[in-house]
Design goal:
This protein is of the alpha/beta class. Helices cover about 45% and strands about 10% of the residues. It has an 8-stranded mixed sheet, sandwiched between helices.
Length: about 350
Amino acid sequence: MKGTLRYLAGIAGPNGFGSRSTAEQVTQHSFFPCSHLTAIITGGTSGIGAETARVLAKRGVRVVMAVRDMKKAEMVKERIVKENPEADIRLFEIDLSSLSSVARFCSQFLSQDLPLNILINNAGVFSPNLEFSEEKIELTFATNFLGHYLLTEMLMKKMIDTAEKSGIEGRIINLSSVIHSWVKPDCFSFPKLLHPIRYNGTRAYAHSKLATILHAKALSKQLKDRNANVTINAVHPGIVKTGIIRAHKGLFTDSLFLMASKLLKSISQGAATTCYVALSNETKGLSGKYFADCNETNCSDLANDESVALKLCTQSRALIHDYLDESQKHSLLNVCLM
């Protein structure tokens, strides 16, 4: 109850920001050298992703939008450039549910010889019915976690090299959700994540969001062991009425939204935590953490379990290796940390 009252009142956390802070507000006085940064944002054609792209571009960051729908991306780019004619927006096509598409995107991006300072793993889906990716992996898990896992692995060397050359800390942000805390340890099974026996859309979504935190925990340790100047953190954007939330039929209904309207964030408020972690000088050196309302907070005990995190990433990499073709496997071996 106390946390809900603080949320409704918009009470700020230790850093002066809170649930009612917007993406523009939290980046207004950033000490990070934004004009020299390049960021990749997945799923930037609507909602939180589009607002994140807009605000980062406004702060002088070169924004690479990795998107599935290029027509929608062109419209977002047009709006951003209209507001900020100096914005540098690059568009690339990607389908996060397809491992081969992710590998193609990485190859195309790396061929541009651009630096990479920030990677925002933002794209996400909620599938109310059981669907599978082209690799026959459950669609929610394939898109929200596995595709981003591969994307991060294949771009890691570029991020480490960029940080070494520029002296600027690289940052990876995984979009998660408070719903990750609904997952019980005995229900989190890798084979069942890939091929659920009794599918439930909300459960699948929660599992995928737990996986994004575990990924941050495991990779953070690897980066620290390597003394790499790159951090990775997970963020909960809050409850925003985006396309994903509207898809939660039976869990979040229109009537519930009406009653809980005071709890919902605007899109700009939903993008604030991502933008804060990406650009704030106050998050320098923080890695393997979980943020909500622009402040570090606690995640579930399961999300903090290092053994579970390591096992998930080990199993994920083995699975990916089985699906990629020989040239893609070679590329992965050349860039990965593990």
